[in-house]
Write a structure and sequence with these properties.
Elements lengths: L1 H19 L16 E15 L7 E18 L2 E20 L5 E22 L2 E16 L5 E21 L2 E20 L10 E4 L4 E6 L2 E6 L15 E15 L5 E7 L2 E6 L4 E15 L1
Antiparallel strand pairs: 1-2, 1-14, 2-3, 3-4, 4-5, 5-6, 6-7, 7-8, 7-9, 7-10, 9-11, 10-11, 11-14, 12-13
Length: 293
């Protein structure tokens, strides 16, 4: 399914780009590419996390958060490389679910999430850019309940994407991005020793799944007013601007293996445990200030 979405999005972006932007159009206002770019901003996003539990057990979380983000790209010719870092420590979500014994629980859970990614971009054509990435995701989650416990999710991921410059007019540029993300080496550490006397900690291997993301950046940029370029230089002036990017992302985590956990709960020994499959939907807008040169 994600692969089909990727192909369909590529086709739609190609048609739109061909119809809207003629070869060479706006070439003086927008050169074919800027090799170096620095971005600083934040994501405002709403997310929904739902585990595939066997009734009457359930686990659902929802939150709205501001998440700072920073990225930089450097390059030469058609190739760019760089990095991205995004994260937020100690934010709350609204939780609706059950304890291990099936008792209803409603309240707030605490989270820390951060993600780092190495970036590699390649300019295919004037309006098309291939996007590659390799990253690491960390999610620390404290679940309230009988006494509460922590879950720490970690995984690596590979990204493959496409960016299309769909329309350019005056100082504005409209783009579309679609990307696939393959989860790798997913693990979860379930920690009871911090809240239960004699609690047993367990590490499980998560099922690796593929996710996808759509982004629609809108850029407003202007050249540096005081920059003086050498006479006859083909160097483009430094440009600064603001980028607003509405986006949607969908991801899944596969069910883990099963292990025995000896933690003593009020209802008895915990016993065999597993991390159920889950899905996450995110909808947000990213606002950033950027410099391109």
């Amino acid at each position: 399914m994600p692969f089909c979405i990727f192909v369909i999005s590529f086709a739609l972006a190609f048609v739109q780009s061909s119809a809207k932007a003629e070869p060479g159009e706006f070439s003086q206002e927008f050169p074919a590419r800027y090799v170096n770019e620095f971005n600083l901003g934040f994501n405002f996003k709403s997310f929904e996390y739902i585990e595939s539990q066997t009734p009457p057990l359930r686990s659902e979380e929802r939150a709205q958060v501001f998440m700072p983000s920073i990225s930089g790209l450097w390059g030469r010719g058609k190739l760019q490389w760089g990095a991205r870092l995004e994260g937020l420590f100690n934010f709350n979500s609204q939780f609706t679910g059950t304890t291990f014994s099936g008792a209803d629980v409603r309240g707030t859970n605490q989270h820390s999430i951060w993600e780092a990614e190495a970036l590699l971009n390649y300019q295919l054509l004037e309006n098309y850019k291939a996007l590659f990435g390799f990253g690491y995701h960390y999610w620390d989650r404290f679940l309230n309940g009988e006494k509460g416990y922590r879950e720490i999710y970690t995984w690596y991921f590979l990204k493959l994407g496409l960016e299309v410059s769909c329309y350019k007019i005056n100082s504005f540029e409209f783009l579309a991005r679609v990307s696939l993300r393959q989860m790798l080496m997913g693990k979860i550490n379930i920690i009871f020793s911090e809240t239960y006397s004699g609690g047993d900690d367990t590490e499980l291997d998560l099922g690796n799944k593929m996710g996808y993301q759509f982004e629609f950046p809108i850029r407003w940029q202007w050249p540096s007013q005081n920059q003086k370029l050498p006479s006859g230089s083909d160097q483009e002036p430094t440009r600064r601007g603001i980028e607003a990017t509405p986006w949607y992302a969908y991801s899944e985590i596969g069910e883990s293996n099963i292990k025995y956990n000896s933690t003593q709960l009020s209802s008895g020994v915990l016993g065999s445990i597993r991390e159920p499959a889950s899905r996450t939907q995110e909808l947000g807008i990213r606002l950033a200030f950027f410099t391109r040169y």
